[in-house]
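Encode chain A's predicted structure.
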Amino acid sequence: ATGGAGSRAASCSGAGVHVVWDGTGGTILCANSVDHGASFSLPVTIDAAAPGKVLYCPEIACSGQDVVVVYNDDRTDRTAGGPLKIDVRGAHSVNGGNGWSSGTLLNTNRSQTSAGGAFVVRFDGDNVFALFQDFRNDLTSPHDLDLFLNYSTTRGAWWAGSDIQMNSSGPIEAAGPPIAQLCSDGNRVYVGGRPQGTHKFRDTASVP
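Encoded structure for chain A:
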């Protein structure tokens, strides 16, 4: 049984439509259509956690037969006396969502506690950009959140070994979901959002 859906997201490319959700029992699932959404496949498991662990908040992007899903993973154990480490992973399909790679770790500084969520995922040619929030720079609750970017230049097959902090002007809003958007032009990435205590920020980054 797939259980009830929590977070959901969808993406389409041509006649292909892909829907992703977090099911009960610590799973990330997707269903695929090749006829503009008139019919869908049975659910396909992208990733599954052991009992007591949770995978959640998937976001999806696609281009042709390449599909990328980014999601939260709390399978890392708690540090002694510390908060839960929550990782961000990116899974890739080359056949329209019917088969998936193992999720690649996207939050690359794991010496500190991280938190994923508020994902933005975009294709731009062969590039894929994934934006996520992270409190590694402020471990005192309530946390100030920062925005980090990871990227793939191979349509999601491989990801960068180091993520990039995108809000150089200060932490984003600590209370409630941050407002952030991402756009790109080739290897140039533009991110806008709401930092703590002000109304907006903008930052750019170039990827190889």
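The mean pLDDT is 81.
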